[in-house]
Amino acid sequence: MSDITESTEAGATGDFTTTGDPAKDDPTTVTSFVPAYRPSASLDALEELVGLAAQVPHEVARKAGLSVSELHSLRHLMASPMGPVELAKALGVTSAASSGVVDRLVARGHAERHPHAEDRRRTEVVVTESGRREVFALLAPMFAKLAEIDAPLDDDERVVVERYLRGAIAAMRSVI
To answer: Which of 83, 121, 128, 141 has the fewest C-beta atoms under 10 angstroms from its C-beta?
Structure first.
């Protein structure tokens, strides 16, 4: 029996009421804040996925001998070339920090500085083929496994999975 229940039964007065359900009585659980939340295998799997997803950039960066900022920079640059200031905003760092990241990527041959196509006073950072190759080589095992688990799904199953994942994405965006 919990301390709260024991003290309540002993006649002590307090601000706590108990339900007899330890998960609901513990003020540090999700259900104490969101009573409609019902733990499930799918939510457990999603929580595990989110935790692993947070670890992937650190592990990939370590294997590549890059900092996490350098890895994230390559990811942004693979989507589109950008200037150091734009890259700083995308990374959430100062322009000076971004310039240092770009310097290191250029030194490794993973990025190049080019004059901006429309404004020659500006610099544009472009990922090189070696930068793309290194990132994709490290991520290839994950992409292969993802393709393997996706392949047997039919279109109706993909709709359900996508709806669930899009809902999870919206839930996460609600806190950012």
So the answer is: 121
